[in-house]
Specification:
Layout (H helix, E strand, L loop, with lengths): L1 H9 L14 H7 L3 E5 L3 E8 L2 E9 L8 E8 L8 E5 H16 L12 H8 L5 H4 L6 E5 L2 H8 L2 H7 L9 E6 L2 E7 L5 H24 L26
Antiparallel strand pairs: 1-2, 2-3, 3-4, 4-8, 5-6, 5-7, 7-8
Helix pairs in contact: 6-8, 7-8
Length: 244
């Protein structure tokens, strides 16, 4: 079976992926009993679970204008309050987005931000950012904002802040962790998804999942009862209307 998987990466049907260091991903997924599949000429998808909650990891062409080349996306349908909107991003990306908003909507021809604008950019304009004193060890490196400020403060009060602070991604690498419509999402630029990099980002994401579940369970204002979400019917590669 492993030889067959290797041929997917090295054979003629996988020429578009030549040079990418992701040969070890399939055996790792198989060992962990994760689902794995190649999306031809795009990338790959890994489906796993943290406890009873499924997550999906995707690597492929970027779906966001602020990420050039390939990106890593990890998502989980958490069943959180659908009115909860949260964004945590690194400061260089925040500064870039704010410049883009100014150029596009102030000096440009558009007069309003519409639904074609990525939600993380819309929310950056809509919601106030946490003060540096509230960010603790993340101050100066990240910004954070939310439609429900107490929820965000609880989410960042503990292991998640520590995991974000320990990230070794370069300051110019876009990093976005967001919650919207009950879903948790991570996006970052990743040219070559070598296994150690995937594992590091997945550890951060699973920490964010655990902390989101903790806050939802502790705060009646931040959670609503819904049934366990089902598995995805298809990959978000390429494109996913649910993110727009």
């Amino acid at each position: 079976m492993l030889e067959g998987l290797k041929r997917l990466f090295s054979g003629s049907s996988g020429q578009a992926d030549a040079g990418h260091d992701w040969e070890g991903v399939a055996p790792w997924a198989q060992q962990r009993q994760y689902g794995f599949r190649v999306v031809q000429n795009e990338g790959f998808v890994v489906d796993g679970r943290l406890g009873a909650t499924p997550w999906r990891l995707e690597w492929g062409p970027s779906q966001r204008p602020y990420i050039a080349g390939h990106e890593l996306r990890i998502r989980a349908e958490m069943g959180l309050n659908p009115d909860l909107q949260v964004v945590v991003m690194n400061v260089p990306l925040q500064e870039q987005m704010e410049r883009d908003v100014f150029d596009q909507y102030v000096e440009g021809v558009q007069t309003r931000i519409d639904n074609q604008t990525p939600p993380e950019m819309r929310w950056l304009v809509m919601f106030p950012k946490l003060a540096e004193k509230d960010l603790g060890e993340l101050a100066g490196r990240y910004v954070a904002l939310s439609s429900i400020r107490p929820w965000l403060l609880q989410w960042l009060a503990g292991p998640l802040s520590q995991s974000l602070a320990a990230l070794r991604a370069g300051p110019s690498v876009p990093v976005v962790l967001m919650i919207g419509r009950g879903r948790l999402m991570l996006r970052t630029a990743l040219a070559d998804p070598a296994l150690p990099a995937l594992q590091s980002w997945l550890r951060l994401f699973e920490c964010a999942m655990r902390e989101a579940s903790r806050v939802a369970n502790d705060s009646a204002d931040a959670a609503v009862p819904i049934t366990q979400p089902g598995p995805w019917s298809s990959s978000a590669l390429p494109g996913d209307e649910r993110d727009k």
